[in-house]
Amino acid sequence: MVVTGGKGGPGATTLAVGLAGAWAAAGRSVLLVDLDPAGGDVAAHLPVPDVRRGVAPLLGLPAGQLDPAAVRAESTQVGWGLQVLVGLAGPDTGGLLRPAATLALLRAARGVVGVELLVVDPGRLLPGSVAAGTLGLAEVRVLAARADLPGALAAQRALTATQHAPGMAVVAVAVQRPADAAELANALSRPLVGVIPADARGVRRSLQTGQPSTSGRLGRAYATLAAQLHPAGGRSGRRARHRHRGALGPGEEATPP
Fold first, then answer.
1. In the chain, pLDDT over 70 holds for what percent of residues?
2. Is residue 246 part of a domain?
3. Which run of H or of E encompasses 34?
4. Per DSSP, what are the bridge partners of residue 141?
5. What is the pLDDT of residues 99-123, one digit of tens each?
6. The domain containing residue 65 runs over which residues?
7. Domain count, the chain
8. pTM
9. 18-21: which pairs have CB atoms within 8 A and are 24 or more residues apart?
10. What's the CATH code of the domain at 153?
11. Backbone phi and psi for residue 175, each to the nearest 5 degrees, phi listed first
């Protein structure tokens, strides 16, 4: 699964962490990979003791040595069923994420023994971006969109940046009111697959504890969305063109989780 967004700031990374945490809490083995060329933020959400490990050492390996064993060695176990491959330290190293190297890393990550779900946070979806390049490998493609005017405009631009737009699952994040989610669906002229409520206290608690939200409003919203998006039982790259049961269409209002 690739979880991307149309603009910087909170949204896609928080959603990727929340989904990974929900699947791990449900008993799945998950590897969360941070490929944001602007500087990975996943490590700020989870208890990663050594941020020098992760993506950067793998991108420096000679050809032929980037394999599933190398990915596993650079991954950090941050909880039961959840491993993380930490992203780059900052935007000055984003040039390391060349297309061929990025795809080779993802193919190796897909082969890590014991991992059932691979969740990738590739940063903003722009023409020619890392996110645009990773969508072709994904079974499930998710676009996080804030339910406000800037968020809707950013989501519209993102959807025009990829040929995979028809099959992308759009999720409204940090939603204050159900009507805001309905307005986003109208602006994009497409249904929303899920709605994540605004919960500053829940996000703050998650950051302070270093664990994804698995309870409360956020935890319930992530668990519901994770069940819908699971490649084996929910949306897949091939089936995502069809409206999923429970999706929010234009003109409909969401019921807060």
1. 88
2. no
3. strand 30-34
4. 2
5. 888 999 999 999 999 999 999 999 9
6. 2-229
7. 1
8. 0.87
9. 18/196, 18/212, 18/213, 18/218, 18/221, 18/222, 19/119, 19/142, 19/222, 19/225, 19/226, 19/229, 20/82, 20/117, 20/119, 20/212, 21/79, 21/82, 21/211, 21/212, 21/213, 21/214, 21/222
10. 3.40.50.300
11. -80, 125
